[in-house]
Automatic annotation (TrEMBL):
Entries under PANTHER family matching the protein: PROLYL 4-HYDROXYLASE ALPHA SUBUNIT, TRANSMEMBRANE PROLYL 4-HYDROXYLASE
Keyword terms of this UniProt record: Dioxygenase, Iron, Metal-binding, Oxidoreductase, Signal
A single Gene Ontology CC term: endoplasmic reticulum
InterPro entries: P4HA-like, Pro_4_hyd_alph, Pro_4_hyd_alph_FE2OG_OXY
Required co-factors: L-ascorbate
Signal peptide: 1-18
Stretches assigned to the Prolyl 4-hydroxylase alpha subunit domain: 69-284
GO molecular function: iron ion binding; L-ascorbic acid binding; procollagen-proline 4-dioxygenase activity
Protein name as catalogued: Prolyl 4-hydroxylase alpha subunit domain-containing protein
Length: 287
């Protein structure tokens, strides 16, 4: 979600993905493979899958909901006080949220994206958040972090289906290998983060990472996942993450070859009451 994202026509996507190697120089392909292959392999041993795993001094807990692509729900990524400070820091900087094409062209279309966006200035809290993101075991250590931005969704505001990655383009010098979307204010109804092509259920290989080996606690596990996922939405609509202040969603945008992953199509659903604010932490790799 966020400012450096764009709309892609589904009819052109498959062709574009097939042509990716033709537009990516060999040395760049090798660089991307070296960067991503060791970090985004489903069997990577240091990626926790248990809902109670990865507790650190901030009491962060990670929940692996998908291994291909990597999608991880993060509890307690920031504290309530940190969330309030980030909200305060963003208030004077909001502008209508832009859309970006794969060539970097900037435009606006409030019928497609009606949120407001604020780029956060450098500050101690921003540096703390960046450092915490880098401390996550699934965050690539060699990537850069783009300036943090906050998205504000008032009543009825939304951002329809989009990707965080770019198709290869000679005018762009890199791509966004991963996203962390952090909920910093969520006094609202609606406004979930929907992945229409990501299908999860308690019986799936991803969701079952929290089940017992015997599979006998399925009802309890299903209730556990429903703390983070909107289980009231129809299953054919994909997976919708519920906004919870302090929590975050991490997802992998690019595969080991540096190609964008279509499954990461996502949307900020309309807010039906109140207001939602989320902060994007985008990693960046230069080509």
């Amino acid at each position: 979600m966020g400012a450096t994202l764009k709309i892609l026509l589904p009819s052109l996507l498959v062709l574009a993905l097939c042509l990716t190697p033709l537009f990516t120089p060999p040395h760049v392909q090798l660089q991307l493979q070296q960067l991503f292959s060791a970090l985004y392999i489903p069997s990577q041993p240091n990626i926790p899958s248990n809902p109670e795993s990865n507790t650190n001094p901030y009491e962060i807990k990670t929940h692996t909901l998908s291994t291909s692509p990597r999608v991880i729900y993060i509890e307690n990524f920031i504290t309530p006080l940190e969330a309030a400070e980030l909200v305060s820091l963003s208030h004077s900087n909001f502008r209508p949220s832009p859309l970006y094409s794969d060539s970097g062209t900037r435009s606006q279309d409030s019928s497609y994206r009606s949120s407001l966006t604020a780029t956060l200035p450098s500050s101690p809290i921003v540096k703390t958040v960046e450092q915490r993101a880098r401390s996550l075991p699934f965050f690539a250590p060699s990537v850069k972090i783009k300036p943090l931005v906050v998205q504000k969704y008032g009543l009825g505001k939304e951002y329809k289906d989009h990707y965080d990655w770019f198709l290869p383009n000679p005018t762009l010098s890199g791509n966004i290998p991963s996203t962390i979307f952090v909920y910093i204010s969520a006094n609202r109804t609606g406004g979930g983060t929907n992945f229409p092509r990501l299908f999860l259920s308690p019986s799936s290989s991803a969701a079952s990472s929290s089940t017992s080996s015997s599979g006998g606690e399925m009802k309890e596990d299903e209730e556990r996942w429903c703390e983070f996922i909107d289980c009231d939405r129809p299953s054919h609509s994909g997976t919708t993450f519920l906004p919870r202040v302090g929590n975050a969603v991490f997802w992998q945008n690019i595969d080991s070859k540096g190609t964008g992953i279509p499954t990461t199509l996502h949307a900020g659903l309309p807010v039906t009451s109140g207001e939602k604010m989320g902060m994007n932490i985008w990693s960046w790799v230069d080509y």
